[in-house]
Amino acid sequence: MSRFIRHPFVALGILVAVAISALIVYRLNTDAKTDTKKTRLITVGIVSPLRQDLDIHLPYTADISPNQVVNIFSRVDGYISKLHVDKGDFVRANQLLLEIDHTDYQHAVNQAKANLAAAKAKVSQQDAVVRNAKLTFDRMQTLIKDQFVSQQDLDTAQVNFDAAEAAQESLQAQGKQMEVALAQAETNLAYSYIRAPFSGYVAERNLDTGAYVSSATASTSTMSRGIMSLHDIKTVRVLIDVVERDIPLVQVGQKAELRAEAYPSQVFEGTVTRIVQALNRATRTMTVEIDLPNQDRRLKGGMFARVEVMVGTHHQALQIPIDAVSRLEDMQYIYVIQEGKALRVDVELGARSGNWVEVTKGLRGHEQIIVAGKDLVHNGTPVHTQPLLQPSAVSAESRS
pTM to 2 decimals? Predict the structure, then answer.
């Protein structure tokens, strides 16, 4: 200690040298960290824009409905005597579904036949009376010329002949009534055998053997469930509600694609067949019907489906992956590579198809688009690029 006190300049020099050395070491470490930061680059995945035709689809959700649905009712009163089909059975057109007890209807047919036979017998009997009256009248007309009979006898023969013809017409009319009664009885008997109006599946059976049915139910109640329900699903249909701005795009004959939850990997193709030429005042939408062939009957009534209607094609549209797009409020932008740095470019987007979206403004088509790592960069960030496995080729194949 006394040595440093005796030589203060030496001590001051040592302190200055130590301070300078510490400063040099600090600056070297700081420069090394700075250089490390400057040399560390972010690796991003890039793709090139795709230019090809883009099909324009309008997406909707809808329920699948059978082509025809009918609730089976009885047109005659009676008890169900026999059921020939049950839920889930496939039936063909005019196949017997069930029978109503037809004992009374068979008796009615037999009675009507007997009444008609009796009426025809009376007509035949009256025919003989008419012929006899006609012969008598003709004979009187001959005899009166020679004055063998009086005028009164001739008049009486005329009256008898006219009365016989009138009675004949009355009996013939009664015979017609009997024919109508027989036809009605036979119709009622036929109605007691209920048949399928078209081919389809029995979706519901609401009554059992022995249940009483009435024809009044079918004619007065539109909410009744009926004896059973029959669905025709050889062709199915979906009804979509098109918003007002898209109405000009939809036309009869356009193709549609349907995907059902039950078959997620299969696409069913249909056609726009009917357009309701009026809007729903409450929703401002227009109903459009799409029919789909269903020969294998895989689609069932009541299934949920997603439908896309193809309304046009943008030829040679410039497209990029939807994952490359970033959004800030109402602005949409992407990052492209320019001189090794990320450059933000504002874009305007058009139609979308799958994972690709059309760019209508902002790109020329030769840029390299950042897809993977776009959230790690900002405008001017130096980046290292890594081309991604071309999703454009996969997408093009899947859409072709």
Answer: 0.65
Q: How far is residue 120's CA from residue 165's CA, in Å, rounded to a whole number?
A: 15
Contact (CB, 8 A) for 194 and 76: no
Tokens 């037809």, located at residue: 102
Residue 21 lies in a domain: yes
Query: 322: helix, coil or strand?
Result: helix
**Domain range for 270:** 59-67+233-312
Amino acid 389: pLDDT:
75
For strands 96-100 and 78-83, give the pairing: antiparallel
In this predicted structure, what is the pLDDT of residue 71? 92
E-only strand ranges, 73-226: 78-83, 90-91, 96-100, 193-195, 200-205, 212-213
Please check whether residues 308 and 347 belong to one and the same domain.
Answer: no
Give mean pLDDT, residues 130-153.
82
Q: What share of the chain is helix, strand, coil (3-state, %, to 5)?
A: 35, 40, 25
Q: What angle do CA 238, 241, 245 make, to 5 degrees?
A: 140
The 10s digit of each residue's pLDDT in 263-291 is 988 999 999 999 999 999 999 999 999 99
| DSSP label at residue 330 | T
What is the domain count for the chain?
A: 4
76-101 confidence digits (pLDDT tens): 999 999 999 999 999 999 999 999 99
For residue 251, give the 3-state DSSP assignment.
coil
